[in-house]
Amino acid sequence: MIIMAAEQRQLECVLLGIRDAEIDAKRSLSSCFTSKIGELPNCFPSLTLRYPSCSICNGILVHVVQVYCPLEGSPYHRTVNVFACPSRACFGKSESWTVLRSQCLETEAKQAQEPKANQEATMATRDWCEGADDWGMDEETESSAPPANSSMDTDFTSQLQGLSLREHLQSSVPAGEGLLLPGPVPTFQPYYISVVDEGEFCVDADMDHAQRLLKEYQRREGVDVQQLISCEGESEIYEKTKARHGDEIFLKFMKKISVCQEQVLRYSRDGQPLFITAPLSNMKQMVPCCRSCGSPRRFEFQIMPALVSMLKSINTEGLTVEFGTVLIYTCEKSCWPPSNQTPLEEFLFVQTDPDQKLFK
After folding, report:
1. What's CA 203's distance to the chain center, in Å?
2. Which residues contact 244 (CB under 8 A, 6 or more apart)?
3. CA of 186: how far to CAs of 28, 62, 97, 300, 305, in Å?
4. In this predicted model, what pLDDT tens digit does every residue of 309-358 receive, in sequence order?
5. Helices (DSSP H) in 191-246: which residue ranges?
6. pLDDT of residue 114
7. Which runs of E-coded beta strand occur in the chain?
8. pLDDT (0 to 100) of residue 16
9. What confidence score (pLDDT) does residue 46 get?
10. Is the dihedral of CA 312, 176, 128, 170 positive or negative?
């Protein structure tokens, strides 16, 4: 059973995004190759991004996260930006959010990576796709497009070894370049997002949790722990655990994220979203096909409730956004029309949090 569980985790690899070091605008720059929280979005050099507004109240949105996520076998660099309306009247409504996907070819990306005078180029961003090359960082300081023949059974552990939490791209396109802004926009304090494999947490957390249960059972029943180390015994102990919240979906959500409660993103392209409340019965039918090519959209990643308390305004008093989880769906083919010069809008679905106070 343990081996089967390990194999299943490998097949359903989920990558977690965790808030990392603060981005100091005076000493460092983010780029279109940076996964980050807050700040203004970055643009690839060949694109122009018209800053979005809320489709409900027409107010200016605030940039929530940027995820650099090139795909295996694709010649494109790829970034997804997510925006939300900070108006309380719009909280919990999917229509008050916008998600934009941007792509550019390697030749175009090099324009954004050329070092400025006497400035060393280093990079700490990691892409989120399985099989991508060194998570977006090339050892020769030039970023390369994702490999076309990467193995599907990539060792994610080895990919994550040596991950530096404070490296960043020094030579980059500054946030705001390539943007068409409607004027001053509300902005959250920027932080880098580092990447970890959920499987790494699950192994340690499962063992620790099992040991705690066994020791508690020994104390209460007066039996030897070693006599209980079996699959059957462990199952009996878990069966005695009751859902205090009363919501099985929410309980499953809380149990799943308990191994890493500080996660702000869960990335699993073509995987299964982790719902915080029961999804609508017609959820699959609610996800529209790509407006550009007509292909189905599939789940790619979701924003987690821990991020809510981490969003800090740098220019607008009382700026905040509240949600349970935000599910991002993108074009199955990740299409990109020839000579396209603006990001493509994708689909998202917001679930409200039944117990927001647990994450504050």
Report:
1. 21
2. none
3. 21, 6, 15, 27, 20
4. 999 999 888 899 999 999 999 999 999 998 899 999 999 999 998 875 55
5. 198-221, 231-239
6. 60
7. 15-22, 36-37, 49-50, 62-68, 76-84, 97-105, 179-180, 191-197, 263-267, 297-303, 325-331, 344-345, 347-351
8. 96
9. 86
10. negative
Instruction: Say how far apart CA 92 and CA 68 lie, in whole Å.
Output: 25
Q: Do residues 239 and 268 lie in contact, with contact meaning Cβ atoms separated by under 8 Å?
A: no
Please give the model's pTM, rounded to 2 decimal places: 0.74
Q: What pLDDT, on the 0 to 100 scale, is given for residue 159?
A: 37
> Which residue's entry shows tokens 């959250």?
188
CA distance 134 to 85: 34
CB hemisphere CA count around 296 (13 angstroms): 7
* Both structure tokens of 107: 């030749």
For 346, half-sphere exposure in the C-beta direction (CA atoms, 13 angstrom radius) is: 31
Distance CA 229, CA 210 (A): 9
Chain segment 137-176, per-residue pLDDT in tens: 333 333 333 433 333 333 333 333 333 333 333 334 455 5
Decide if 321 contacts 62 (C-beta within 8 A): yes
Give pLDDT < 50 ranges for the chain: 1-10, 115-126, 131-173, 225, 228-246
Residue with tokens 């924003």: 303
The encoded tokens of residue 165 equal 């939490």
Return the DSSP state at 44. Answer: -
Quote the crossing angle between the two packed helices 198-221 and 231-239, to the nearest 10°.
Answer: 80
DSSP 279-326: PPTTHHHHSPPPTTT-PPEEEEEEE-GGGGGG--BSSSTT-----SEE
Residues 6+ apart with CB under 8 A from 221: none
d(CA 257, CA 330): 23
Quick one: which of 104, 100, 95, 90 has its CA closest to 50?
A: 100
- What integer pLDDT is reported at residue 172 of this predicted model? 41
